[in-house]
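Progress note, project year one: complex with 2-acetamido-2-deoxy-beta-D-glucopyranose.
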Amino acid sequence: MGLVRWFVGVLFLSTLLLCSADVHHYEFFVRESKFKKMCNTSTLLVVNNSYPGPEIRVHRGDTVFVNVHNRGKYGFTIHWHGVKQPRNPWFDGPEFITQCPIRPRTNFTYKIILSEEIGTLWWHAHSDWTRSSVHGAIVILPAENETYPFPTPDGEQTIILESWYNGYYKQIIDQALATGDPPRLPDAYAINGHLRDTYGCPSDTIFRMEVDYEKTYLLRIINAAMNEQQFFTITNHTVTVVAQDASYVRRFKSDYILISPGQTMDVLVSANRNVGLYYMATRPFSDSAALAVDLHFYWRFSLQKQSGWIDCFLDTASRNGRYGCYA
Ligand SMILES: *[C@@H]1O[C@H](CO)[C@@H](O)[C@H](O)[C@H]1NC(C)=O
Ligand SMILES: *[C@@H]1O[C@H](CO)[C@@H](O)[C@H](O)[C@H]1NC(C)=O
Ligand SMILES: *[C@@H]1O[C@H](CO)[C@@H](O)[C@H](O)[C@H]1NC(C)=O
Ligand SMILES: *[C@@H]1O[C@H](CO)[C@@H](O)[C@H](O)[C@H]1NC(C)=O
Ligand SMILES: *[C@@H]1O[C@H](CO)[C@@H](O)[C@H](O)[C@H]1NC(C)=O
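Model obtained:
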């Protein structure tokens, strides 16, 4: 009897060890889709008709297979940004470096081996201008036997900062290559595909996140904007930075963050201010004197019941990222 129990115990333990890393399968169908924004209809290359693309959600140490079907007109590849891919370089993705482009009407299955990465990364197309719209988050939760090194948040939200270009995505890079100039500046900036609602166009929307009073949220912020550092803030709130580029960091509090293109930052924010609506705001840092000083981008951040709107701005013209609000 004692022997049987012991044997069962060993079986159980080995099953637990075998189950510690999961394998996930995703199907990506990449094609051109039309999006109505800024009173324009623009054609973008996207995954599964979605801008931004689908989220990959795994635990630390898992393995992911992504079968990428090219239903577009041109070849491209997908890069798993920041995944170390130990002993697996041929699935890293840069076009013409580790593989040839995935040709139209063909598919290619990536094997993505996660090892010590924890927090947030992202994936993006790695050819010409395609990464401006072919991108999405990789959320890496602690392994089943691990916890966060900070109090477990009550909820979480992925925040993808993006640049928006009106028109046909391919034209932007073709024009730049033809003239030898840098690609033109974006027409707008987006949070999770929302451009804000102040362009006076009926199809434009604002990104809203609803939170409960006194709860703490983990924001997984990804700068997917093309070549631009971005400021990000939430009015009247401070954020605590807990991770960067899929590593935990020594925690620090700040009124705003400055995030580089390709970078990710995980921050905690507590909904501990008066119940109301607060803007999330992002705008590019730019050295260019050509950028108008009054370009302000607003997003609304809703905290339970509405009690009014406040306007906020990030003033990067003064180079120190000051921000303020008017009621
Ligand atoms: C993408 O779309 C295909 C076909 O509609 C679907 O089978 C697949 O699950 C979708 N992938 C994701 C990641 O949502
Ligand atoms: C539509 O896009 C074109 C090309 O970028 C731009 O010139 C025009 O101003 C846009 N229309 C609106 C309403 O923003
Ligand atoms: C292409 O997709 C099919 C079906 O979805 C799959 O069986 C095949 O292995 C894929 N080929 C490659 C090269 O990934
Ligand atoms: C969790 O399990 C993995 C795989 O068995 C192991 O490498 C890791 O050290 C464990 N982590 C903790 C905190 O026990
Ligand atoms: C936000 O902060 C500003 C400046 O400190 C203050 O005037 C305003 O009342 C605050 N708003 C809310 C809703 O707490």
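Residues 1-19, 288-327 have pLDDT under 50 and may be disordered.
The chain has two helices and 21 strands.
No further modelling is planned for this target in the current period.
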